[in-house]
Design brief:
Blueprint lengths: L7 E8 L6 H9 L17 E6 L3 E7 L9 H11 L7 E7 L6 H10 L6 E6 L6 H12 L6 E4 L8 H11 L17 H16 L9 E9 L5 E10 L2 H8 L4 H18 L2 E10 L7 H6 L6
Parallel strand pairs: 1-3, 1-4, 4-5, 5-6, 8-9
Antiparallel strand pairs: 2-3, 7-8
Helix pairs in contact: 6-8
């Protein structure tokens, strides 16, 4: 793509409490699943980069973990990952849940945002679930706490007003180079996205404490010679043997369903048939072990 002198480019952080729709918004902009989604809190653990390229500019979105009160070293890492982006980007999109309204978590984030010089857009998501008459009073509540560069109501799920949001982002970003090739949508390796897709299916199919106690590692990913087939072996780690048994399920039924659902999306991602081999191991209290966090890709520095 030929980049003009008016070409815009920059980095935009998506921040907010867990489950406000950060991943949904990024996936909507990219029209591709780069960041996994779930109705379970704290789904996103790492910083996920998604690249949106157009003739007008290139927006690099940073989908960050939901900011919450951490209860483990993993939680500390997640919150620090989100907060570290505040001064490293050109723009912050502070997403809030319009249906839930202003809460203590939002107030905590706002106090942190007051300390940075980066421009902040307040993005009220899930407006499809709120009566229009309730939006203006809600906006006034947030505006009373902090001055925002822009305030934009949207529905990331339905795509309502997201076009206007994109235009406002491009208008604010500086002129600059195209950082990534036009056809690249993320800077994460395929192995990372594969492991996240497997973890997403675990989140979707399990309940109670299991979703937060799971990590997925891709042990092998190789193309079989002479075949249009990619072999992938993953290990799903849990914290207790009882969780391992629940995740495997009666006669392996739950693990099989995780594999079936994950394989469908992985094949779409890779454009090839996939043989997905899943194993489950129990590793006691891994969320508080520094070495395990590093092994699973969660740096604890």
């Amino acid at each position: 793509m030929q980049v003009s002198e008016t070409y815009k480019s920059g980095f935009v952080a998506l921040i907010g409490r867990p489950n406000v729709g950060k991943s949904t918004l990024m996936n909507h902009f990219l029209d591709e699943k780069i960041s996994i989604m779930s109705d379970k809190p704290q789904t996103t653990r790492n910083q996920i980069r998604g690249v949106l390229t157009s003739d007008e500019g290139q927006i690099i979105f940073l989908d960050t973990p939901g900011i919450h009160k951490p209860k483990s070293r993993l939680g500390d890492f997640m919150v620090r990952t989100a907060q570290d982006t505040f001064n490293e980007v050109d723009l912050i999109l502070f997403l809030v849940d319009a249906e839930e309204g202003l809460g203590g978590g939002d107030r905590y984030i706002i106090e942190s945002l007051k300390k940075v010089s980066t421009p902040v857009f307040l993005v009220l998501n899930k407006i499809d679930r709120v009566h229009p008459e309730k939006l203006l009073p809600l906006i006034d509540q947030y505006r009373a706490l902090m001055e925002f560069q822009e305030i934009i109501p949207i529905s990331a799920l339905q795509g309502s007003n997201t076009g206007s949001l994109k235009e406002l982002i491009l208008h604010l970003l500086p002129t600059g180079p195209q950082y990534y090739p036009s056809d690249q949508m993320t800077d994460h390796p395929e192995q990372f996205i594969v492991s996240e897709l497997v973890r997403e299916k675990v989140l979707r199919l399990t309940h109670e404490e299991i979703p937060h106690s799971v990590a997925v590692v891709v042990d092998e990913m190789s193309k079989r010679k002479g075949k249009d087939l990619i072999f992938i072996r993953c290990t799903i780690f849990t914290e207790r043997k009882t969780q391992k048994g629940i995740l495997i399920g009666k006669q392996g039924a739950l693990l099989k369903e995780v594999g079936l659902q994950a394989r469908t999306e992985i094949e779409r991602l890779l454009g090839s048939r996939v043989f997905l081999d899943l194993w489950v191991k129990a590793k006691k209290d891994w969320r508080n072990e520094v070495n395990m966090l590093k092994q699973f890709g969660y740096r604890d520095e």
